[in-house]
Write a structure and sequence with these properties.
CATH topology of the largest domain: Rossmann fold
Largest sheet: 3 strands, parallel
Shape: globular
Order of helices and strands: HHEHEHE
Strand order of the largest sheet: 1-2-3
Number of strands: 3
Helix content: 25-40%
Radius of gyration: 16 Å
CATH architecture of the largest domain: 3-Layer(aba) Sandwich
Length: 131
């Protein structure tokens, strides 16, 4: 946690509680999502957005990737940040809503409906596709 600056509430809490430290159970990939031999795993020690401070953008560009699909947590922080950065970098973004979560369901709904839908395509079984 030496490189984690306590410049936000999330970072301060992570430092205070030693959350998601490499080698601890909290930092392990759940068995159902274990990467296959064809998957790329990009590690980072701090930050909220996977594009910042990693080789992700350079790798995707070398592979001629134009569309990224985002799933995970949290809708209200990391998902939104990744979607915005990816859009600014020129990628088409798809949010898999059924595979995302926020701090609470109402927050998730507002962010998906009023923010993410403006910058990304939201894919979900429960939502009808855009016309």
């Amino acid at each position: 946690m030496a490189d984690v600056k306590a410049n936000s509430l999330l970072a301060a809490l992570a430092r205070k509680h030693g959350a998601v430290v490499a080698g601890t159970p909290q930092a392990q990939i759940v068995p159902e999502l274990t990467p296959s031999s064809q998957d790329f795993v990009i590690k980072r020690s701090s930050g909220l957005i996977g594009f910042i401070g990693t080789s992700l953008d350079a790798m995707l560009r070398r592979m001629n990737v134009e569309t990224i699909v985002i799933a995970g947590v949290s809708t209200d922080v990391a998902m939104t940040g990744c979607a915005m950065v990816a859009t600014d970098l020129g990628y088409r973004v798809v949010i898999v809503e059924d595979c995302t979560a926020a701090s609470d369901p109402a927050t998730h709904e507002v962010i998906v409906r009023d923010q993410l839908a403006m910058i990304a395509r939201v894919a979900s079984r429960k939502r009808s596709p855009p016309r």
